Amino acid sequence: MTGAGPDERADAVVVGAGLTGLVTAVRLARTAGPGRRVLLLEAGGEPGGRARTTDHRGYRLGLGPRALYRTTRDELRALGVRVPGGEPDLSGSLALRDGALHPGYAAPGPLLRTGLLAPRERLAVARLLALSRGRPNLAGTDAARWLADRLPTERAREAAFAVLRVSAYAGRPEMIDAGALAAHFAGVRRGVTYVDGGWRTLVDALLGRARALGVETRTGCRVTAVEGGARPRLTLADGHGIRARSVVLAGLPQRAAHRLLDEPGPAGPPGRPLHTACLDVALSRLPDPRRTLVLGVDEPLYLSVASQTARLAPDGGAVLHLARYDDGSGLGATEVRKRLDELLDLCQPGWREVLVHERFLPRITTMTAVPEARTGGLPGRPGPRVPGRPGVFVAGDWVGQRGLLADACVLSGARAAEEAAARL
Ligand SMILES: Cc1cc2nc3c(=O)[nH]c(=O)nc-3n(C[C@H](O)[C@H](O)[C@H](O)COP(=O)(O)OP(=O)(O)OC[C@H]3O[C@@H](n4cnc5c(N)ncnc54)[C@H](O)[C@@H]3O)c2cc1C
């Protein structure tokens, strides 16, 4: 379709077919019931957004490491999407400090044995990570302050954050609100799933559900403006217009959403994005099957052999994900890559000889807006309604008062879908 012509009509339009948009479209179509016309528009060549998985001769590589939390899993199951996979075994996790590997902290067992902490420190860290004292009034306090208040030494704080960081992708504790981090970590402790086939399994299943419910999905379809309130009108990059009763901007960063709406955005301080460097690796054989989960302590590094838990590689092969979380140190891509290579050399010596495929992503956005203490933590995030635009809703990892990362996407997508469906 090109050019102006008469506007197309739809009941509801979801803009963006990442995880947020897919969940939103399925829930919207299901709540609205049969006979409603729901469109799902995606600018890219395929749906999935940052939840995409690529396939290299049977090796499934997500964009960076992927752990699906219970909240996301439960929301997907409620939409009829199965989540096949397994839970990683943390008991053999290792900690990397001063360039050497030590029995790690990722599970209570290794934490209580690690020689990197004195007994008093171990106990304090274990207690903090158990969140046994609850999380009273943590919103508005940054995680650095929380750790300083609760832990006796710098070494203990570093150890605790090594575990917390992995769950939230936050490179340093000053970056993130303690209430948001603690609530998220409590959810992560309920269990995580490494998904068979990668997150593409979920994207495909959601697309299947959407199709079965009659949602029309269009790729290569960029929305350039959304005007009006009660009966919004969308303009596409080719000039085509669509009028709908409800529009959900799903998974667009906050600034991008406000640009489409031609609105200045919130008056308060903007949420800052979180970036991570990722190295995704496929090997025909795993050189050392004992070194499969490593958490950096004095440097924000991570390594996981995801294929030990989920079906991601052909028999005998392995898929590994390495990451360096952004700690604000400003290291260039070459230096970051060098450090990830060194970690791989340490854990899986000889990996280059069995390399099938590698992909280095020096700076991918893991969260479009971190809930920070200065922005009020989770309670400071906006809801799905856009003030003054009754037919327009937003959803994504920066929307709603619950959840981080994919959890925030599915929870805010569900709420936006309910509100959008109520207008049809
Ligand atoms: C390296 C990495 C690791 C991660 N690990 C985890 C993890 O372990 N656990 C977890 O819970 N979360 C994790 N996440 C976060 C999770 O992947 C994201 O929160 C989620 O995939 C975001 O989905 P989304 O739909 O909100 O955004 P996106 O995936 O970015 O999708 C937005 C979509 O909108 C489209 N779009 C944008 N503008 C327009 C427009 N104008 N018109 C039409 N379409 C448009 C884009 O093309 C895109 O496809 C990770 C993220 C990354 C990057």
Task: Describe what this molecule looks like in 3D.
With 424 residues, this protein is an alpha/beta fold. Among the domains are: 8-51 and 200-271 and 371-421, FAD/NAD(P)-binding domain, CATH 3.50.50.60; 103-188, no CATH class. The chain has helices spanning 19-32, 70-78, 108-113, 119-130, 143-150, 154-168, 178-188, 200-212, 254-260, 333-347, 405-421; strands spanning 8-9, 12-15, 38-41, 53-56, 59-62, 68-69, 85-86, 94-97, 100-103, 192-195, 216-218, 223-227, 233-236, 241-243, 246-250, 274-283, 293-296, 301-305, 318-325, 355-367, 385-386, 389-395. A seven-stranded mixed β-sheet has the order 9-8-17-18-19-16-20, sandwiched between helices. Strands 11-3-2-15-22-21 form a six-stranded mixed β-sheet, with helices on one face. Strands 1-14-13-12 form a four-stranded mixed β-sheet, with no helix packed on it. A hairpin with a 2-residue loop joins β4 and β5. The two termini are 26 Å apart. The structure holds flavin-adenine dinucleotide. Flavin-adenine dinucleotide is lined by residues 15-21, 41-44, 49-51, 63-67, 69, 72, 222-223, 251-252, 256, 276, 278, 364-366, 396-397, 405-407, 409.
Short description:
The chain is α/β, with parallel strands linked by helices and 424 residues long.
